[in-house]
Amino acid sequence: MTKNAGNQGQDQQRRPSTLDNFKPLLIDVALPLGSYYVFKEAFGMGTFAALAWSSVGPALRTVWSLVRERSANGLALLILTVNVVGLALSFVSGDPRLMLAKDGAVSSTVAIGILVSVALGRPMMTEGMKPFLVKGDAARAGAWERLTSGSAAGSVDFRRRERAFSLVWGVALLLECVARVVGAYTVPVDTMVWLGGVLMAVVMVVTFVVSGAVAAGPMERILGEEAAAQPTGTGREKLVAAF
Question: Most Cβ neighbours (<10 Å): which of 18, 200, 225, 234?
């Protein structure tokens, strides 16, 4: 029984949490915003220089994640490319507004990746949502597999909600991108630096609420019903499974 519990603990450690999946986006908001004001106010840099140096952090973070995971994640590579190209173009043009618009391109890259994954029938946000709904429970994990494979009664509704979850996030990030680009060329640069961070935070909170209401909540209910509908097995089967 101890061995089984240890295996479950290891499985839970290997599963990425929802926070783990969204941590890069949070870092891309907090780190550039804080470092911009440090470079500008504490070190007396100009607006463009402060923006340029504050963009280095997210690019290095993406490189580090690629090196640490030792895998070429397509979306991470796209984000890194956008950061590097945007930084290079900004140095060439010397335009701080282009630096701010580049941040919107990162959101659009993520958004397009999510929307394409929905169109291909493999919603990208599912891996981040699964640990939150399964909660390390074997019965719920089995129910998840049956629902996603189409063998359970609620599979059609479950998979529709699964696609809806990613769709909500993709559309929200795309709208956030448009707002960032418009703001970059219409709002004063110093204002847009902090406003961009606020905009991202608001978008994430609202999207969490909406995606939870239209997708994650109903999926959790369907998952619970499917797990409860399956026979729990005999005492002997439980004993064998425990060891």
Answer: 200
Check whether 208 has a pLDDT greater than 80: yes
CA distances from 78 to 44, 81, 82, 110, 130 (A): 32, 5, 6, 8, 24
Segment 65-94 shows an average pLDDT of 59
Give 15's DSSP letter.
Answer: S
Dist CA 170 CA 120 (whole Å): 14
Instruction: Assign 3-state DSSP to the chain and report helix, strand, coil percentages, each to 5.
Output: 85, 0, 15
CA distance linking residue 66 with residue 56, whole number of Å = 16
Whether the Cβ atoms of residue 196 and residue 165 lie closer than 8 Å to each other = no
Q: How many CB atoms lie within 10 A of CB 154?
A: 19
Q: What is the pLDDT of residues 129-177, one digit of tens each?
A: 888 898 888 999 999 999 998 888 889 999 999 999 999 999 998 998 8
pLDDT score, position 175: 92
Maximum average pLDDT range among 22-26, 62-66, 90-94, 110-114: 110-114
| Residue 142: burial class (beta carbons within 10 Å; 0-12, 13-18, 19+) | middle
Spatial separation of the C-alpha atoms in residues 221 and 213, rounded to whole Å: 12
Q: Give this prediction's pTM.
A: 0.65
Structure tokens at 43: 């070190």
Residue written as token pair 């909660």: 135
Number of other CB atoms surrounding residue 65 within 10 Å: 17
Give the separation between CA 60 and CA 82, rounded to whole angstroms.
13
SS3 assignment, position 111: helix
DSSP 120: T
